[in-house]
């Protein structure tokens, strides 16, 4: 009889231990999720363009870069906001992809061949001002540091 009681106690003890282990695992998983988010970088830079079709082309080009999670071009301000995983890509890769689709960014001139193939309404003026909000100036942008 005493022996039976003892084995019940042992089983209960094992039960508690495995519960504790499960809890610990959950905590570790959520820590990993947090550190993934820290690797995301968000920034914005000037891109020339005219209309909603330009917006589609520019954003599609940005999304074509592996690691880009979000791309939103503002046709009034001539600014694109991008979020990307900096372990997978970098800012210049996004500039280059947009330039290859025919659009000037503030660091890379757009491909002339791609520009010629854009619809007439999209053939923007190469002298167009970028970053028209006044919120983001070229100087502020550079001082974001690298
Ligand atoms: Cu357009």
TrEMBL record:
Q: Which Pfam families match?
A: HMA (PF00403)
Q: To which species is this protein native? A: Allotamlana fucoidanivorans
Question: What's this protein's name?
Answer: Copper chaperone
- Which terms in the Gene Ontology molecular function aspect does this entry carry? metal ion binding
Superkingdom, taxonomy of origin: Bacteria
Residues covered by the HMA domain: 34-106
